[in-house]
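P.,

For your records, the input lines for the assembly:
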Amino acid sequence: MRAAFFIAVLLGFSGVLAAAHFAPWMRHARLPSQTEVVATGGRAERFLIRLPVDRIEASGVAASPLRAPPGAPGLALPAELSAKPLLVEHFKVRDAAGNVIGLAARHWTSEGRGAGSAWSVLIPSRGALLLTAPGEGKAALDGALQKVGYHPGSAWSGTTAVPAVNVELTPREGGEVTAGSDEFDKLGGSYKEVWKVTGVSESGELRGTIELDTITRRGS
Amino acid sequence: MKYLLVMIVGLLLGAVAAGAVLYYNPLTEADGPEPAAADRALHYDLSAQMLGLSLGERALLPSLEQRDTQLWEDTIDRTALMGLVLRDDANQPVAVASRLLVGSASTDLLLHGVLLSDYWLLTFPDEGTLFVRVDTNVWPFLKQALLPVWFFNQPWHGPVEFRPTAGPGAQSTAIVIGASGKFGGVEGSAVERYRVTTLDRASNKAEAVGELHLHFFPPQVAAEQPTPGDG
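Structure tokens returned:
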């Protein structure tokens, strides 16, 4: 009887410690990765952001009135920063099939040598990716839309002939996959960022899709 | 029957003893590194300088009050997204940070504590952007502050300071990676420290001030290759 008692105590003790050590306490739901192998080597994966539903918040009206419109959910910058060249955007991120799989933050700023943009993309079940590129010019998206007839303060929609305006915000050679964690650790590569805008509401809310096309390779 | 009863009592006693060991386990309560002299020391105030906070539906512990959240999908319901203004030592706002937080698969209640993966995208207007990758151990905060005050209605004995940085860099520091502007190509380390000043369940109020200390590594100079015939 005494032996059984001590064996049970030992079992209870070691069982709880083993569970504390081995149990997957932070397991995140995972969807199959929508990746393709690239003929030249590497793995291609497209991330999508649908506007306006995937925009969480944004700030930086001085850098782009359309991407941080006054009426949209915003981050209220202090006066010392609000006039600076700064654009901060937070989004949900989808896979190529349109399923929400993560979150992303995009920052843009400029300094003496030019502009720079950076994406931090978090996919809970897979890790994080840091994407960087020489940034677009100030209010690049606003300018591209005005060229096709958009006027600030009025609504604009694509036409049958031109259903969407495609604005590529990375340079021709693409941006760089700079760093990553977990599944993306030690990956390098490139990416392209294209904003496909199909319309703008009177209040300045964008409709369309942001496409982030990444090609990642191990150790490049 | 008697044996079964003895076994059940024994199992329960063993489990309770193990629970006590886990609760008082010094391995999971270790403080992160102490901030040393930093190239940049940035300060934030979670009550006054938080630009925005989105919490996933299941990001909070059970029974903590939930906000309306956009982060409801299964794949992101344990995440959080925070926008912060960061100030310098002269209390001037100098940077904006977006923090993407998620429970880490490295969480180990026996050896490491409750870990969050905390990704900072940190932009200094007119200068450039940095990426900071942090493993944050929130177990000391849960144990010393949140659980007793929020769940067991004990009085708050704050303020309490925490040094949560637990890696993934050398000496348990965070990893800093330059992303753009004058920080392009820069590497370094970082350490966070925060002080919870107010925690009151009755008024649903939590306040904290914190610091992020950035240290940049000197640029690596490639070793000169010996030419054939040298020496």
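Two observations worth noting. Chain A is about 15% helix and 45% strand. Chain A touches chain B through 73 residues (CB under 8 Å).

Regards
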